[in-house]
Amino acid sequence: MATAPGVAIRGPRSLLRQIREAMAGARPAQIKLDMVMRIVAVSMVAEVCSLYLARKSGEQELFATEGLDPGAVHVTRLKPGEGLVGEIMKLGRPLNLSDAPAHPAFSYRPETGEDPFHSFLGVPLLRGGRAIGVLVVQNRTSRVYAEDEVEDLQIIAMVLAEMVASGEVIDLAGLKDVEIAPQRPERLRGQKLADGLALGVAVLHEAPVAVSQLLSDDPAAEEARLNEAIAELQAQIDEMLEGHQASLGESYDLLEVYKQLSQSRSWRHSLVEAVRSGLTAEAAVERVRSEHRAGIGQARDPYLRERVHDLEDLNDRLLRHLAGDGGKARLLPDNAILIARSLGPADLLEYDRTKLRGVLLEEGSAASHAAIVARALDIPCVGRLVGLRDKVSEGDPVIVDAESGEAYLRPRPDVVAALQTRLGVRAQRRAEFARLRDTPAFTRDGAKISLMMNAGLAVDLEILGETGAEGIGLFRTEFQFMVAEELPRFNAQTQLYTRVLEAAKGLPVTFRTLDLGGDKLLPYLDVDREDNPALGWRAIRMGLDRNGTLLKLQLRALIAATRGRELRVMFPLIASVEEFRAARAIVDQEIAWAERRGRPAPSLLRVGAMIEAPALVWHLDALLPMTDFVSIGTNDLMQYMFAADRGNPRVADRYDPLSPPALRALKMIQDACAESRTPVSVCGEMAGRPLEAFALIALGYDQLSMPPGGVGPVKQMVLSCDREAARRGFDGLLRGSAGSVRSEVETLARKLSVIT
Ligand code: PEP
Ligand code: MG
Fold first, then answer.
1. What residues are annotated to the active site?
2. What is the DSSP code (8-state) at residue 145?
3. Contact at 8 Å (CB) between 658 and 691?
4. Bridge partners, 131 (sequence order)
5. Which atom of ligand 1 sits closest to the CA of residue 685?
6. How far is CA 569 from CA 94, 409, 602, 605, 606, in A?
7. Residue 693 phi, psi dihedral angles, 5° rounding
8. Cα separation of 274 and 276, whole Å?
9. Of 336, 340, 347, whose CA–CA distance to 392 is shortest?
10. Which atom, in ligand 1's list, is nearest to the CA of 454?
């Protein structure tokens, strides 16, 4: 507590009691709040104590103060993000400053008369993980508030947040438009992480238990409750690990780390300390949680940030155990949409899959754990929804539109009706695709088109049979590396490739060697920051450097997993024939190495190059004779052809693969492959979109590999396509002078009754 000489120091317990007494009477809300400000100021030996609450507009209004000019109450309003108060709302954590006016975010408001105050301590009022206001103390002299003063103010803020939100103590009518629970319909734009549509009700992942009882008179009893809950939590994690060992595959290692966190001594020590200071076990969990948030929550390092999410998740679980329902899986409504800042590795698996309709995340990226698992489980997911958690409450109706990468919160009835229509159409189409599953994909004029599936984790293979794909045309091996905490060793790699080959049940699998770098960064791999990562040290460049160590290890694991069966392997981002030659030489060396040790060599070896770097298009005469096959990564090829970052929404969709330059390049590749009789496939996203796939077939391609959801729609297109007529139609389009020929392709497809 405050340390001014001669002042009686009072602990948080007596302070909280005084606050409760002040709030309990029948006085008007404003008077109660003013009293609380006074109590806090006296107790903390602060000259100022003020409360700001968020208005619907996002502005922070001064609601009560001790020490600032009372005339500023309900007059001073700070814009969203303005001043130190705005900064705290944004960060969701305390700011402790000895010289507040020197802080870049400081905003001077003359009406408050605050210029003589130098020291500033502000903490957010958090409710359900959402900042609904800020509590501030200030002092004239320059000082840094001690750690326990910060903690005490956080506890007071916790109590105030509950009181404000409950409306029991403060007359909410008097504070009527305080943004406790947003009501308006909202539409948020984010990023599509796993395709699909869903309509349901919001289930908050992070705030299952509200802590109401904060103080205890029996610390020993609280410590016993805490210990019991921790033991239950650890047993639950063990059980989860055991139960899911087989299906989790590469996520298993992640759960191990999670288990270690739950056994962390420092975590337990902080909890016990907090309970011994007089808090209930629940309040102790909240207090330790805010320490974590304030400590590493804002770290830029992605590894540390991931750990913070795991810790948050552990805290939530512990609260559930303390509430007595930790052992049970959370009861979900029938149409649950999970709302979270981000999800840990185990989270999605723990919810009842039959009731989970969709996921909305404030953070997350296409390569995040949650996105990878959501795609594997076929749950629509939209991420990067800024401010999501502040805008949605438990039970709100919500829509996940992962076709467009949007979320609708409390949607209007017309939006719901439109979505229901789209859902109906989708369900009907799914049923049609399922019926086509075993029908071979022949065009009307008899050309066989081979439709394959892209995958990246062992769990993806579970739906291979459902899609009717003829195999895996692209297995992105780097996903295993991205969900791991450290570089997967030889054994872990061999196990994964073995599982994949087994799950494919004899269907062909083309493994692509590591395609890391660019946007696929690994926290544990020490790579210098690059100005242009997409053009930097990535993919095969990384594989071949440092004496080819990464590539050798991976090929060794692939050969071991093949165990004398067929091995199909290809290299990403080959930009020169030398790179392919060098990579292929390593394959030969590794096979010789295995044979020297008496291990079986692959019965059939197929080594291919991905065509993703435009330069190679003009050197196919040299490349093709060296390869057994090639596969076109159109995602990268288009990014480099149009100089437009595929991951940057501002430019990613600016250029069209259905344009004369792109189609001519694709035609050149197809012609060169046909002439040299080199098998060629297309494995970028465009292969999974019916209109683009129609164009590829017209250009002569007959092998397409795509995300699982594309197989049905593309097969339906193939079955109604007359390839020769399509080819003739494309002759003119290739010579076109427009930047995009999408509408012409659409007209042609319609004319040929390929699409309706
Ligand atoms: C591509 O670039 O088209 C491709 C298939 O590879 P990735 O999307 O993994 O870069
Ligand atoms: Mg690529």
1. 369, 683
2. P
3. yes
4. 126
5. 3
6. 52, 45, 11, 8, 6
7. -65, -35
8. 5
9. 340
10. 5
Cα distance between residue 634 and residue 684, in whole Å: 5
Q: Give whole-number Cα distances, 491 to 267, 461, 557, 707, 709, in Å.
A: 32, 20, 7, 28, 32
User: Is the alpha carbon torsion for 123, 125, 128, 129 positive or negative?
Assistant: negative
**Which of 636, 685, 692, when mutated, tests ligand 1's pocket best, judged by the most ligand atoms within 8 Å of its CB?**
636
For residue 715, report the distance from its CA to the centre of ligand 2, in Å: 24
What φ, ψ does residue 182 adopt, rounded to 5°? -60, 145
Within 10 angstroms of residue 262's Cβ, the number of other Cβ atoms is 20
Q: In sequence order, which residues have a C-beta less than 8 Å from that of residue 728 and are 6 or more positions away?
A: none
The SS3 call for residue 125 is strand
Distance, CA of 720 to CA of 696 (rounded, Å): 15
| 400 has a pLDDT exceeding 80 | yes
Coil/strand/helix, residue 388: helix
Instruction: Give the C-alpha separation, 534 to 515, whole Å.
Output: 11
R_g of the chain computed on alpha carbons: 30
Is pLDDT at 617 greater than 60 in this prediction? yes
The binding-site residues of ligand 1, defined as CB within 6 angstroms of any ligand atom, are 474, 476, 515, 612, 633-636, 683-684
**Residue for token pair 């090929």:** 555
Query: Residues 444-503: pLDDT tens digits?
Result: 999 999 999 999 877 778 888 889 999 999 999 988 887 676 788 999 999 999 999 999
Which amino acid, 207? A
Question: Phi and psi for 188 in degrees, rounded to 5?
Answer: -115, 140
Percent of the chain with pLDDT over 70: 85
Find the ligand nearest to 520 CA: 1
The DSSP secondary-structure symbol of 505 reads: T
Ligand 1 centroid, distance to 493 Cα (angstroms): 21
Instruction: Estimate the crossing angle of helix 281-296 against helix 147-166, to 10 degrees.
Output: 120
Q: What backbone torsions phi and psi does residue 484 show, to the nearest 5 degrees?
A: -95, 160
**C-alpha–C-alpha distance, residues 390 and 87, integer Å:** 15
Task: Give residue 641 CA to ligand 2 midpoint distance, Å.
Answer: 13
- How many angstroms separate the Cα of 432 from the Cα of each of 435, 604, 713, 739, 750? 5, 37, 9, 35, 20
Q: Mind listing the pLDDT tens digit for each residue in 132-183?
A: 899 999 999 988 898 878 888 888 888 788 777 766 556 555 543 455 556 6
